[in-house]
Structure formats: structure tokens, C-alpha cells
């Protein structure tokens, strides 16, 4: 008679990493007939294994996507591939794929920096203990009388309160999701360097600085680029590299032209990384 319950317990998945509640913006990029589509969302919980979120769009279990989120107290965003493990009403669960050691350390650092006073679970538990303290101080006889005379009223009031709180939280989460979606319509989409490299229409090769050539300096000049909807360079920001090489790369890349990037059937601005390799022959 105990075989069935035991089997059910054995099949219950166990979590390898603890989940932490979090409320930060999440960007999901999914392919629709080979065309990338950006879906804004908001994280609800996070672990080293994956992330739970509310996403403004339709996804299906087993679908591979790209996700990006920024954690409080962590300057570098977490960008990685993921697979959809479950899809419900407004809520999705993503399992990370190929999360690097550095990204795992970022999540661990963020979890370590979490203040206990900021944890919703701890605050909820604290409020429960405060609410129960007067009841615990009562005499057993008085507590029994209260349970006998008001059980139905207390139960109805509790159900109404829980229902009202749940509705309010749902409305607030949906409002935050809509606000985030509108805010991201004007923000550039983050597109991989490999994808944008295939969309280059024309490019100008940078000139090798003479002083760098004489001194034998070489290496990579890494730039963060914002490309306008018409495919021209809108903004360039140096990320790393030798100063002279970066200056030459900036002058050349400003003249590059890309095929306009489309999302949901219209050309949009995108953000990407451009790397120029300076090598002495």
C-alpha cells in the first residue's frame, strides 16, 4: 500500500540550488520563423540553475531563448542562453544553458549581498510571529472559547483578505510588466556581435597608427555600438584596448553601414559589440 506514495516522492524533482526572490527587468530574445523577437519581462526568483519570470509574450516548453538581466549590486549584466522549462499564465520558468563560471559567481555574490531585512520571506515570517504573539499570551481557556465562537467569521475574513492581496499583487505585477514593455520599445535591442557582423553592408578598414606600428603595439579595440534603425552608427563607446588603436577604430567604424535590423516587422535601433583586431604583419 505504500509503494505508490514512495514512487511519487522519488519522482519529485529536487532543487540543487536555492531560489531567491528578485524583482528586476528581464529581456528575452526568441526566434520567430528565424527572426529574433524581443520580449520584455520581470524576474520573480533566481538561482544558479535558472530564473522564474513574468514575460509579455507567448513561449512554449522546450523552446531555446536568450535572456539578459541586471542584478542589484552587480555592474555587469547576466547574458546567457536558456530553455523554457514551463509556461503558465504570464509566468515562465527558464533553465540556464552554458552559464559561465564568472556568471555563477556573479549570482552567488548577489545572493550573498542580500540583506535579511530585505527578504520578503523573512519579513512575512516576522509579521506572522508578531500577529501570533498576542494569541500565544492568552490563556488556553480563552483561546478555546475564541476558536469555538468565531471560526466561520475568521475564516471568511482571512479568505477575503488573501483574495484581495492576491488580486492587488497580480494587478501591480501586470502594471509593472506593461510599463517595462513600453519603456523598452524605444530602447535599443541587444543583438549579438556575430549576428550584426553578417548584416554589414559597407565598412572602412582602420588605419594602423604609426606610433603604435613603430612600437610594435597590437591587439583588440573593443567598442560598444548603438546602430540606428536606418543601419548607420548612432553612438560608439570605447570598452577596452590601446588608446591609439581605439581612436583609429572609432574613426573607421563611424563610417560603417549595416542592414536595418527588424523586430516585429519594423526597423529598430540595436546595441551590439564591435571588435577591431590590429595585427602587425
Task: Write the topology of this structure.
Elements lengths: L2 H9 L8 E2 L3 E8 L2 E12 L3 E6 L8 E6 L8 E10 L3 E7 L3 H13 L6 H18 L2 H10 L1 H35 L3 E2 L2 H5 L2 E3 L7 H5 L4 E9 L5 E8 L2 H11 L3 E2 L3 E2 L2 E2 L2 E9 L3
Parallel strand pairs: 8-15
Antiparallel strand pairs: 1-3, 2-3, 2-5, 3-4, 4-7, 5-6, 6-7, 9-12, 10-11, 10-15, 13-14
Whole-number radius of gyration? 26 Å
- Multimeric organization: single chain
Q: How many strands appear in the DSSP assignment?
A: 15
Q: Proportion of β residues?
A: 25-35%
Which architecture name of one domain does CATH use?
Beta Barrel
**Taking strands numbered 1, 2, ... along the chain, how are they ordered across the largest sheet?**
2-3-4-7-6-5
Structural class: alpha+beta
The CATH topology of one domain is what?
A: Thrombin, subunit H
CATH superfamily of one domain: predicted glycosyltransferase like domains
Helix content: 25-40%
- Output mean pLDDT: 78
CATH class placement of one domain: Mainly Beta
Please tally the helical runs, counting DSSP H or I stretches of 4 or more residues: 8
Largest sheet: 6 strands, antiparallel, barrel
Low-confidence stretches: 1-13, 133-142, 145-149
C-alpha end-to-end distance: 78 Å
Q: What spatial form do the alpha-carbon principal axes imply?
A: elongated
Which H/E pattern describes the elements? HEEEEEEEHHHHEHEHEEHEEEE
Defining key terms:
281 residues; alpha+beta; Thrombin, subunit H; TolA/TonB C-terminal domain; six-stranded antiparallel barrel; four-stranded mixed sheet; 8 helices; elongated; disordered N terminus
Amino acid at each position: 500500500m505504500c509503494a505508490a506514495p514512495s514512487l511519487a516522492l522519488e519522482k519529485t524533482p529536487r532543487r540543487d540550488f536555492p531560489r531567491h526572490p528578485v524583482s528586476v527587468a528581464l529581456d528575452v530574445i526568441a526566434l520567430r520563423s528565424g527572426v529574433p523577437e524581443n520580449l520584455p519581462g520581470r524576474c520573480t526568483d533566481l538561482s544558479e540553475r535558472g530564473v522564474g519570470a513574468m514575460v509579455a509574450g507567448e513561449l512554449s516548453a522546450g523552446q531555446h531563448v536568450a535572456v539578459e538581466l541586471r542584478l542589484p549590486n552587480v555592474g555587469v549584466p547576466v547574458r546567457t542562453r536558456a530553455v523554457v522549462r514551463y509556461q503558465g499564465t504570464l509566468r515562465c520558468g527558464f533553465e540556464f544553458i552554458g552559464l559561465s563560471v564568472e556568471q555563477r559567481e556573479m549570482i552567488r555574490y548577489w545572493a550573498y549581498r542580500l540583506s535579511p531585512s530585505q527578504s520578503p520571506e523573512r519579513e512575512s515570517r516576522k509579521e506572522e510571529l508578531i500577529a501570533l504573539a498576542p494569541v500565544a499570551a492568552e490563556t488556553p481557556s480563552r483561546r478555546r472559547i475564541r476558536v469555538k465562537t468565531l471560526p466561520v467569521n475568521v475564516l471568511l475574513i482571512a479568505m477575503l483578505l488573501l483574495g484581495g492581496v492576491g488580486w492587488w499583487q497580480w494587478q501591480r505585477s501586470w502594471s509593472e510588466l506593461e510599463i517595462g514593455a513600453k519603456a523598452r520599445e524605444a530602447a535599443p535591442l541587444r543583438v549579438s556581435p556575430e549576428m550584426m557582423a553578417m548584416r554589414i553592408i559597407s565598412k572602412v578598414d582602420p588605419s594602423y597608427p604609426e606610433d603604435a606600428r613603430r612600437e610594435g603595439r597590437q591587439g583588440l579595440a573593443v567598442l560598444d555600438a548603438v546602430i540606428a534603425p536606418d543601419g548607420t552608427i548612432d553612438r560608439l563607446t570605447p570598452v577596452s584596448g590601446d588608446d591609439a588603436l581605439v581612436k583609429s577604430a572609432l574613426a573607421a567604424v563611424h563610417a560603417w553601414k549595416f542592414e536595418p535590423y527588424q523586430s516585429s516587422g519594423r526597423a529598430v535601433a540595436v546595441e551590439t559589440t564591435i571588435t577591431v583586431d590590429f595585427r602587425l604583419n
